[in-house]
Amino acid sequence: MRKLIVLSFITLDGVMQAPGGPNEDREGGFQYGGWSFPLADPFSGSRMMEQLGHDYDLLLGRKTFDIFASYWPLPEHASNPIGAGINKAKKHVATRSPLRTDWKNSFRLEGDLAEGVRKLKAENGPELQVHGSGNMIQTLLRNDLVDELWLKIYPMTLGPGKRLFADGTVPAAFELVECAPSPKGIIFANYRRSGEVQTGSFV
Fold this sequence. Notes:
Elements: E1 4-11, H1 42-52, E2 57-61, H2 62-69, H3 75-78, H4 81-88, E3 91-94, E4 106-109, H5 113-122, E5 128-131, H6 134-142, E6 148-154, E7 174-181, E8 187-193
Parallel strand pairs: 1-5, 1-6, 2-3, 2-5, 3-4
Antiparallel strand pairs: 6-8, 7-8
């Protein structure tokens, strides 16, 4: 069975909405789109290449797919290593609407999302990466389908905004498998699902 990995840029208070640009996602009147950009540096770029510099397939929500489809196939982006990997990957999209057909290797995930993802995970193939897709992630978390979290935690709080751990979150334990800070204070932290939440008492 192949792993499903959620890659997210999040703030200290858990906001994941629109890290990449002002108009990426203004839903709910969100005013801080592009909050990750000022902290970009070579260290962070190198870490991202480690995470995206191998074979993978993508599992995307419809909004993230549309953003990616309007950006990564363009010649100026497709020629860089990250763009080449995203364009090469099979893109499985959770949507009830037809997909644009001009972006190669894009497939609509039919029927129930949780069941469709279980079938994808049971297939032979590379890991499944989830980028963005905050609404879809809630369904994945609710159904305990996430094997690993590769988080980029930014040293800021934003208050209102879509959160990685929202209504779909269920109790789950994770173990830290890798951690590295950037010179500008971003924490790259990879967690692996590790069973049930344990409780105890200091009394």
